[in-house]
Every structure is written in structure tokens, then in C-alpha cells.
Specification:
Rossmann fold; nine-stranded mixed sheet; 12 helices
């Protein structure tokens, strides 16, 4: 090994992806993770080696990208492949800083007769949470993390007032004071959705105040994007415009029509009052079948891919007008399902806007599925812009194997 390689090793232990001598001498897990996340960048990374993350003759100084990656890893001498992949997804490719990496990519494109494409504008995304029959305190940070990791979004969160719950025997005066405080909190809850490109609902609780409802209706009707994740489609059965926006929701069979897909891929509409109420069977991993392979969100995904452990919703109900089914899953009777192909991903136009729904995402472990994360990332981008630039990652699930990025959070003390 050369003396130059020895000088690289101290920083390689904590961060760098490649040794200065050759890729063959690199830490295998870093090289493997980097090419899984950014497969198109192999020629440049092979040429730069240490300079992907370092600068200077001794390579003891980290460049701006190297510093960001070290911070994302949250430790030194990291060997866990999933943790390395997650860090790389979080920081994205080396494109924000003026590094040798970026310069070389630009040079190669110029030599090929192509000018470097300008970086896509960062989209502003607002997550709304605060009430849910699912653990939004855990799932919202996961949503925020992987959306920002795409490099396409800046994410803010608007949290509603909590839902009041009183223990049996709570005195009336205490309840009345709490309700008065709650009312004041609701009067202040006015998320500025018009300041964003896309809104993602992780909310399932009390009906929003009238001004908030009207604000969302106007935002989407004028061209804003709306993303509905899992139990967010359970919310607001009494809000007529919301039901038009989502098309299908967790409702009783008498609420509206039901949509399924038959074995030949034909959409089947079951009139209200017939068939099951909205329900789900036991949690399990199940394959997702892409029904629209040409849609920007699902284009490039395998025709069938394995989703990680989740609830498989069935019997969703609503007006379902102008609904476009992108993917389904077969609801097996042995897991408490219907024996039919149920919608998992769909979209509906509302005015000039687009409403994108996935009913996947029951819990933190469900959201760690690379397939789910890719669907939400690409769905949010498409809802906001009508286009998709976020690639389908190389480590996307296959027809037989789920792909999971483990998200480790500090244990509660």
C-alpha cells in the first residue's frame, strides 16, 4: 500500500468511501452503498476516489460534502450498510457544493456535448399532523427525513391542537376550562398552505376549522399538490370537498361507491350499499402490482414489487370521480381480506391541482420500505409539478424481496 493510502486511512475509518490507491482497496460497504444509491456516478467516483469527500494533498481535510456525510452518519467507523445508505440518501449526491466531484461531472458532460442540467428547484412541502389514530409523532419525522433525503424538498410541519381526552370522573369545570383553551388553539391553527408547492396530510382527527378547509380547497383548486398517506384518508367524512379530493376513504359501505380491479386489470365499480365496509386484515408483507406503467410516478418500477409489513386496506368508499388507479394489492382472504385486488395508489384531479393517495404506511416499519418511500417522494414531486425527476433507486424491492432502510431512533428515556 502506498504512503498516500496510509495518509487516507484515518479519515476513511469515519467517512470516506474510497481509498486513494484504488476502489478495490475501499471499504466494501461504502462503495457498495454509494453505487446502490447513485449507480450513475460510478465513472466519476472511480476516478476521484478519496476526493469524493476529501481535499488537499494529504486527504486529511474533508470537503463540504464530506462534512455533510459525516454529520449524517452520526458517528465514526460506521460499518452498517443500511445506516450508510440512509446517510447517503439524506445528503444526496455531491451537487450542492463546489467540489472536485461536481466539476468533473460538469466536465464530462461538456466533453459529451451536453451542458450540465441546472439543479431542480427545491420544492416546499408542508406536513400536517397533530391528531391520528396512528403514531404520528413517530411517522412524521420519518416522512420528513426521507422526503428531504431526496434532495428535492424542504419540509415544514404544522401540528394541530391535540385531541381532548378526559379521564372518567373529571370535574365539569376542568373539562370546560380545557375546552376553552382548546378552542383558542384551534382559532390560531391556520397553516399557510398557499406558501407551499405541496401539502402532505398525516392527519386523522377532528374536523379542521372552516378557514383551514377553505384554504386547502383553494390551494389545490389553483394548482397546488396534495398527498394523502394511509390513515389520512380516514379523516373528514363530513367534509364534502375533501371526499371529492381523495376519491376513496375509510368509510362505511353506505357512504359511496367502491373501486377494485379484476384479474384482467379492468376497473370495477361496486355501488354504495353493496360489498364490504372499509376494513383491513392482519398486517403482513404483500406484493404491489403496478397498473399504470406509463405514469410518471410508477414508470421504471417493477411491474410487481414486495412491500414490507403493513395494513392492506380494502373496501374504501367515496365518490371516486375521475379516479386513476396506479397500483393495487391482492387482499387475501386468509389474512382477513376480500379476495380481490384493492387500490393502493391512485390520484384524482381537483381543479388545476392533483391529489395523490397511497394507503400504505401504517407504522414506522412500513415506512422503512424503500418502495413506500419512493412512491411518496415521486408522488409528492408529481403532485407539485406534474413531472418526476427523482429516480427509482437501484435497491428498490423486487417481486420476491422487500427492501428496507432501517431507521434507528434513540430509545425514549
Amino acid at each position: 500500500m502506498t504512503s498516500r493510502s496510509h495518509r487516507c486511512l484515518p479519515l476513511l475509518a469515519s467517512l470516506v468511501l474510497f481509498t486513494a490507491a484504488s476502489v478495490a482497496q475501499a471499504r466494501v460497504q461504502y462503495y457498495k452503498a454509494f453505487l446502490q444509491v447513485f449507480p450513475d456516478l460510478k465513472p466519476v467516483t472511480d476516478k476521484l476516489k478519496c476526493n469524493v469527500c476529501h481535499m488537499g494533498l494529504t486527504k486529511k481535510m474533508r470537503n463540504p460534502y464530506g462534512k455533510r456525510l459525516e454529520q449524517a452518519l452520526g458517528g465514526t467507523n460506521v460499518k452498517d450498510l443500511d445506516r450508510i445508505r440512509k446517510a447517503l440518501l439524506k445528503v444526496g449526491p455531491p451537487k450542492r457544493e463546489k467540489t472536485q466531484f461536481v466539476a468533473l461531472v460538469a466536465e464530462q458532460k461538456r466533453k459529451a456535448g451536453k451542458s450540465p442540467a441546472p439543479a431542480a428547484k427545491e420544492l416546499k412541502l408542508l406536513i400536517i399532523d397533530g391528531q391520528n389514530n396512528h403514531n404520528w409523532r413517530v411517522t412524521t419525522p420519518i416522512l420528513k427525513d426521507f422526503l428531504e433525503a431526496s434532495g428535492r424538498f424542504s419540509v415544514d410541519v404544522a401540528t394541530s391542537p391535540p385531541q381532548l381526552r378526559f379521564a372518567k370522573g373529571t370535574p365539569k369545570d376542568v373539562r370546560d376550562r380545557a375546552r376553552a383553551v382548546q378552542q383558542k388553539l384551534w382559532e390560531k391553527f391556520r397553516p399557510k398552505v398557499a406558501n407551499y408547492d405541496v401539502v402532505l396530510s398525516n392527519y386523522n382527527g377532528e374536523l379542521w376549522p372552516g378557514p383551514v378547509q377553505k384554504g386547502l380547497e383553494d390551494f389545490v383548486a389553483k394548482g397546488g399538490g396534495l398527498v394523502i398517506v394511509h390513515a389520512a384518508n380516514n379523516a373528514f367524512p363530513q367534509w364534502a370537498e375533501f371526499n371529492k379530493m381523495i376519491g376513496l376513504g375509510w368509510r362505511g359501505k353506505d357512504f359511496g361507491d367502491r373501486i377494485t380491479v379484476d384479474d384482467k386489470g379492468k376497473v370495477v365499480r361496486t355501488p354504495k350499499g353493496e360489498g364490504p365496509d372499509a376494513r383491513h386484515g392482519s398486517e403482513h408483507a404483500f406484493p404491489i402490482v403496478v397498473r399504470d406503467v406509463k405514469h410518471p410516478v410508477t414508470k421504471g418500477m417493477p411491474r410487481e414489487w414486495m412491500h414490507f409489513k403493513d395494513e392492506l386496506y380494502h373496501g374504501q368508499r367515496g365518490p371516486a370521480r375521475n379516479i386513476h388507479i396506479l397500483a393495487t394489492a391482492f387482499s387475501q382472504k386468509k389474512t382477513g381480506g376480500t379476495g380481490e385486488h384493492e387500490p393502493m395508489i391512485w390520484w384524482i384531479p381537483y381543479g388545476k391541482g392533483r391529489v395523490f393517495t397511497t394507503v400504505m404506511g401504517h407504522a414506522d416499519y412500513s415506512m422503512q420500505c424503500v418502495g413506500f418511500q419512493t412512491v411518496v417522494q415521486r408522488g409528492a414531486e408529481w403532485a407539485a409539478t406534474g413531472k418526476v425527476t427523482i429516480p427509482v433507486p437501484k435497491h428498490f424491492p423486487t417481486a420476491t424481496d422487500a427492501s428496507v432502510i432501517l431507521i434507528r431512533r434513540p430509545a425514549k428515556k
